[in-house]
Amino acid sequence: MSTARNLLIASVVLNVFLAGALAGGAVWIKRGKPAQGYSLEAAGGRLPDEQRTLFRKALRDVRQESRDIIREGQQARREAADLLRRPVLDTAALAAALERARNADVTVRTRLEQRIIEFAGAASAEDRSLLAEGLSRRAGPQPSTPPKKSS
Fold first, then answer.
1. Can you tell me the distance from the alpha carbon of 95 to that of 97, in angstroms, rounded to the nearest whole number?
2. Alpha helices (H) in 86-124, listed in sequence order
3. Cα separations in angstroms, 47 against 25, 33, 35, 57, 133
4. How far apart, in whole angstroms, are the C-alpha atoms of residue 22 and residue 16?
5. CA-to-CA distance for 101 and 95, rounded, in angstroms?
6. What separation in angstroms does the CA of 92 have from each of 77, 88, 100?
7. Domains, the chain
8. What is the C-alpha to C-alpha distance for residues 145 and 151, in angstroms, rounded to an integer?
9. Do 131 and 123 form a contact (C-beta atoms < 8 A)?
């Protein structure tokens, strides 16, 4: 009986979390505000309205096309979390789950960057300059001293 109760509680918690995520996503989409922070999408935040819309659509299309890979990465992270909760840690399984998550992330990131390259290839010099500024902001402040070379 307690296993069924625990599963019911876990199901309710997961459903509440998913409902909140969906509601938050709907609000975010409805507001349509420029991306804040340091995402790749934020790099296009200063583009003219029409170009910004095209830029965001291009990135959204990549995420849409990569849904299965994104889900695989999420599933791998869930598996890693489950492995961490076990009384005896299976480090090989944990490493494999984290590697699958990382590979999914890298695949999606590569696709996003390729789409940005395609977008930039068709953009004007002014729009590319605005993208460069956005990427520079994303990279953070430039170090005041050059990094030391390792010997």
1. 6
2. 91-122
3. 23, 13, 12, 13, 10
4. 10
5. 10
6. 15, 12, 12
7. 35-133 (1.20.120)
8. 18
9. yes
Per-residue pLDDT at 44: 84
Q: Look-up: residue for tokens 């840690």?
A: 89
Which pair of tokens denotes residue 75?
A: 């599933």
As to burial, measured by CB atoms within 10 angstroms (0-12 exposed, 13-18 middle, 19+ buried), residue 2 is exposed
| Terminal CA-CA length for the chain | 64
pTM: 0.62
Across the chain, the runs of DSSP E, i.e. the strands, are none
Q: Tens-of-pLDDT digits for all 151 residues of the chain?
A: 688 887 778 787 777 777 777 777 777 777 765 444 456 778 788 888 899 899 999 999 999 999 999 999 999 999 999 999 999 999 999 999 999 999 999 999 999 999 999 999 999 999 989 888 888 876 666 666 666 666 5
